[in-house]
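Task card 7
Instruction: Convert sequence to structure tokens.
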Amino acid sequence: MHMEKTVSAAIHYRRSVRIYKEKAIDTKIVKACIKLASLAPNSSNMQLWEFYHITSKETIAKMAPYCFHQNAAKTAQELVVFVTRKDLWRKRAKANLKMVDALFPPKPKAEQSSRERVIRNYYGKIIPFAYSDFLGILGFFKFIFVSILGIFKPIYRQVRGSDMRNVAHKTCGLAAENFMIAMAAKGYDTCPMEGSDTLRIKKLLHLPFGAEINMIVSCGIRDEKGVYGERFRIPFDEVYKEV
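Output:
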């Protein structure tokens, strides 16, 4: 491998590669890049994600048809499946509260600092309020409640189950981007794939019911034909708005 690229160089180097060389990549490096993915910013530090690192050629061969025989899947040396786990919000909230206990040894509320009270209230009350739902019914009433309060003051309005699902997927997308930039920095190539039969892949990987596939990222070393043309972007002035 060459010297690791700077962040800017890695971003410019990264392309969605559809055809990879039949050349093995270092699984340890891919795993290290997944670890960097886990350092991505995420909503409330809830980390509602999981990363499935597919190194088995047999499993990759089984997944290719479920990715509609895309070249990026068929020629991949390895795959990484980015999965959201909104259903684990209680467990993740408890983990954050445990982290708070390590920072602030438990003490009577009257002796707690304002920062400690805010954090404990956040993970003990606000997070459960945002994530709790039952068949969408509770989420609907929460939405009505915050909409009424929102008439009088600024308030967080994304409290329905569908809203929190979107939050989990946005968070997972940030992790996937971290991963792809980290891979580019190492001189490895990737391609994010949304086109797949997620139900069949869930069954193949034995994912739990509450898991949702955010995207599948193929990995390898680009073939000279693997990048389909020059990069195209809408003129920057059309998408950049200074306020």
